[in-house]
Design a protein that fits this description.
Blueprint lengths: L2 H4 L19 E2 H8 L3 H10 L6 E2 L5 E3 L1 H16 L4 H11 L1 H9 L9 H8 L8 H6 L1 H22 L5
Helix pairs in contact: 4-6, 5-6
């Protein structure tokens, strides 16, 4: 009879290594599994949030400290849990700091969901109102430019046409 059959609990999975200590560094695959996000998302977040800086060893392998994991968990909560955009989460990081977002990740602090007007403002930031371009330039100016483009097209067509014999 095997040792596993004599114990009360289920057999241990041989592939799972010993549980890491709370202060141990984590690989990108461990963090991705813990946060339930793909690894490429973590790498993308590194490009958008300068505060996320895992230790990189030889060969470019990433190792995340516990505070990095808390920060990533906070960013995930802002983006997925509260509905913030990347820009909104960046604003919270800038205004409140990384320690606050880490506390959000640990569940020690709470952030309200963005107000509807904030979401709309972020979505349309820097874009003119629909129809504003026409109001500024005027329909006559656009029609004149279009007529000039048609004239240019006709001139080019004439230059490309074979010479008459």
């Amino acid at each position: 009879m095997s040792l596993a059959a004599m114990t009360d609990g289920p057999p241990e999975d041989d592939r799972a290594g010993p549980e890491k200590r709370p202060g141990a560094f984590r690989t990108i695959s461990e963090v991705a599994e813990d946060l339930d996000v793909p690894q490429h998302v973590l790498r993308f977040w590194e490009t958008r949030f300068s505060q996320i800086r895992p230790v990189k060893r030889a060969g470019g392998r990433r190792y995340y400290r516990p505070e990095d994991v808390d920060l990533l968990r906070g960013v995930r909560h802002l983006l997925h849990g509260q509905g913030y955009t990347i820009k909104g989460a960046q604003r919270i990081l800038k205004e409140s700091g990384a320690r606050f977002v880490q506390a959000v990740g640990r569940g020690e602090a709470d952030v309200a969901a963005p107000q509807a007007q904030e979401v709309e403002a972020e979505a349309g930031a820097g874009l003119p109102e629909p129809g504003a371009f026409l109001a500024e330039t005027g329909r006559a100016a656009i029609e004149a430019a279009l007529a000039e483009l048609y004239a240019c097209r006709s001139a080019l067509a004439a230059l490309r046409a074979p010479p008459e014999a």
